[in-house]
Amino acid sequence: MTQESGEVWEKFAVALADMARDLLAQDSVQATLDRIVEHATVLINGCDEGGILTVRRGEVRALAATSDVVRRADRIQQDLREGPCFDAVTDREQLYAIEDLRRPHEKWSRFAPELRKLGMGSMMGFLLYTEDDELGALNLYSRRPDTFDESAQRAGWVLASHAAVALSSARTHQQLGDALETRHEIGEAMGILMERHGLGEEDAFAVLKKASQDHNIKLREIARKVCETGERPR
């Protein structure tokens, strides 16, 4: 490694540390997703646009995007059912890239020309994952061909790895918060049933559970309705 390249990677490491702190400071999963793609356009040399998508049962879902161009690219992958980021999730490969969208691409013969029509020259996609949890794919786009060299790909892989950990942490934090809120609402609803309708603790919970099962509605929603109306669910 030359002194110049060493200095570049040192600056990248510092910026990556700043990104990690920024991602952990976000107060929601969506905010974390949005910041990941924003950081990618700053930290990855030549990156003009970025986005995150998931593919579940063949359906593409855009989670974050820096512009409408990225959302249109996601829709193209959905419609054609092909593309590097689609494959990154479905085939579990860590990296896919199209170096030059001007040249015919054998694997993505339909997707590549459509992406070129959107003004893109090259792209790469990374699987966002932790050891136990696959989360989707990070898409990076450049308007110029042959932009993402080996150094950019390595930087993108490092960024995607850090981003996946931050995203997993944000999701866990949100799930914990949702669970605590649900527990609070159920407890409040049980208290209302016990006080206003003369039920015991076990009977109050049984009423909520049965209403949830009978109406195929989440227990939390049943509890919330009881809290709002004070009425015993039918």
Automatic annotation (TrEMBL):
<dbReference type="InterPro" id="IPR011006">
    <property type="entry name" value="CheY-like_superfamily"/>
</dbReference>
<keyword id="KW-0418">Kinase</keyword>
<keyword id="KW-0804">Transcription</keyword>
<keyword id="KW-0805">Transcription regulation</keyword>
<dbReference type="Pfam" id="PF03861">
    <property type="entry name" value="ANTAR"/>
</dbReference>
<dbReference type="GO" id="GO:0016301">
    <property type="term" value="F:kinase activity"/>
</dbReference>
<protein>
    <submittedName>
        <fullName>GAF and ANTAR domain-containing protein</fullName>
    </submittedName>
</protein>
<dbReference type="InterPro" id="IPR003018">
    <property type="entry name" value="GAF"/>
</dbReference>
<dbReference type="InterPro" id="IPR036388">
    <property type="entry name" value="WH-like_DNA-bd_sf"/>
</dbReference>
<dbReference type="InterPro" id="IPR029016">
    <property type="entry name" value="GAF-like_dom_sf"/>
</dbReference>
<dbReference type="GO" id="GO:0003723">
    <property type="term" value="F:RNA binding"/>
</dbReference>
<dbReference type="Pfam" id="PF13185">
    <property type="entry name" value="GAF_2"/>
</dbReference>
<feature type="domain" description="ANTAR">
    <location>
        <begin position="166"/>
        <end position="227"/>
    </location>
</feature>
<dbReference type="InterPro" id="IPR005561">
    <property type="entry name" value="ANTAR"/>
</dbReference>
<keyword id="KW-0808">Transferase</keyword>
<dbReference type="InterPro" id="IPR012074">
    <property type="entry name" value="GAF_ANTAR"/>
</dbReference>
